[in-house]
Amino acid sequence: MKGVVFAGDRTVEFREFPDPTPGPGEVVLEIKASGMCGSDLKMYRAAPGEAARALGIGETGAVIAGHEPCGVVAAVGAGVSERQARVGQRVMVHHYRGCGVCPHCSTGWMQLCVDGVAEVYGATGHGAHAPYMKCPARTLVNLPDQLSFATGAAIACGTGTAWGALQRLDLKGDQTIAIFGQGPVGLSATQLASAMGARVIALDISDERLGRAKSFGADVVINPAQVPDVVAAIRDVTHGLGAHATLDASSSSAARRQSVQAVRTWGKACFVGEGGNVTLDVSPDLLRRQVTIIGSWTFSTVGQAECATYVADRGIDVDALFTDRWKLEQAEEAYRLFDQQTGGKGVFLS
């Protein structure tokens, strides 16, 4: 079969790979939807051979890209019980493989494996930008019948990541949250937080993305490039107090600092965007306001399933995240457009 590989310096290649065969405890999926994630761009833009290292997760040879897999179980290996997986089942994939038995893996947090994550699909192990994908049965998460494969792909990373961060913040319906960055993760957070009943302040330097945030439930939109003081602007619409919670999905150092400064006393700020740094003045920014800073790295298999159930039960239109739907053979054009980071989310559909 042919799979998409990040070849380096903003190029993708179609390379031949053997059709996967499941080993003991494994399954093969027929991929129906494979999402495009902002973190893919770090690998897409990296120098040749540096794709996985661009995410700080080690080195690898040529692997099939795509870490938002969703599809149908096509084959099961020895030792896979029907409760784990059955042919024809609609599933998402938790896109990490750990040891499977340590305290983190056994609770669904395979990316936190005590031995170090063994594979990140689409980065150090073959991902979903191909007709088929092999993975351990324990990484599968059921896709509710009400949800499309595209929605499942979004929940498999971007939307699931937003869900995980909002759960870490313990966001409540009577609270206000400011969400910095309205790319796929930030927009997902806006959509979910609005569905939870929270008042949402959405921030982005793209007016197009702010328009989408408004349509996804944002109550207030702010373009940081057009206001003299972002923190003051947030305080102006929160009775001078600041937001109860903030979420940074931008990876911008300035936005991260502002997200901490913009919470009220006893507020919580959550960092989701990968990489980069932030500089804070500890006493006024943190200590003397009792501020909590939280780091949130994606989600567990349990959290992924809970997110899917929440979306299905409440009829949340996650499909609306996608501005671009592609066939796999259009991968070169798709990533060229996605690299501009001005629109919404893309997905490859079979």
Automatic annotation (TrEMBL):
Annotated coiled-coil segments of the chain: none
Boundaries of every Enoyl reductase (ER) domain copy: 8-348
Family matches, as InterPro entries: ADH-like_C (IPR013149), ADH-like_N (IPR013154), ADH_Zn_CS (IPR002328), ER (IPR020843), GroES-like_sf (IPR011032), NAD(P)-bd_dom_sf (IPR036291), Zn_alcohol_dh (IPR050129)
Cross-referenced Pfam families: ADH_N, ADH_zinc_N
Record keywords, A-Z: Metal-binding, Oxidoreductase, Zinc
Names of required cofactors: Zn(2+)
Name recorded for this polypeptide: Threonine dehydrogenase-like Zn-dependent dehydrogenase
Sequence intervals crossing the membrane: none
